[in-house]
Amino acid sequence: MPSTPLLSMRAISVLSRDGLSVPLTPKAFEILLVLVRNPGRVLKKDELIEEVWPDAFVDENNLPRNISSLRKALGEDCRT
C-alpha cells in the first residue's frame, strides 16, 4: 500500500510526511488548517490573521514569517 504524502492529525497538532514527523510551530499548523479548509480559495491576509489569532492584536509580520516556515516544512513539491 503506498504511503500518504501528507497526513495531518489535528488533535495532536502533528504533520506527517511519508511517515516522518514534520516540525511546525502551533501557529504555522493553524495556518495550514485554515488553508486546507478553504481549498481553491484565495484568503486575504486579514482573514488569515482573524482565523489564527482571533481577538488578539498581532503584528502583521507574524503571518509572513509563519507562512515562510510552513513552506519550508512542506517543501517545494507541495506547492502544486
Structural account:
The protein contains 3 helices and 3 strands, in the order βββααα. The protein is of the alpha+beta class and 80 residues long. The chain has one domain: Orthogonal Bundle (Arc Repressor Mutant, subunit A), CATH 1.10.10. Strands 1-2-3 form a 3-stranded antiparallel sheet, with no helix packed on it.
Question: Features of this protein?
Answer:
80 residues, alpha+beta, Arc Repressor Mutant, subunit A, three-stranded antiparallel beta sheet
- Output the CATH class name: Mainly Alpha
CATH architecture: Orthogonal Bundle
Largest sheet: 3 strands, antiparallel
Low-confidence stretches: none
Q: Look at the structure and give the mean pLDDT.
A: 82
Per CATH, what is the topology?
Arc Repressor Mutant, subunit A
The CATH superfamily label reads Winged helix-like DNA-binding domain superfamily/Winged helix DNA-binding domain
Radius of gyration: 13 Å
Number of domains: 1
Distance between the termini: 23 Å
Percent strand: 5-15%
Itemize the secondary structure elements and their pairings:
Blueprint: E1 6-9, E2 14-17, E3 20-22, H1 26-37, H2 45-52, H3 62-74
Antiparallel strand pairs: 1-2, 2-3
Helix pairs in contact: 1-3
Brief write-up:
It contains three helices and three strands, in the order E-E-E-H-H-H.
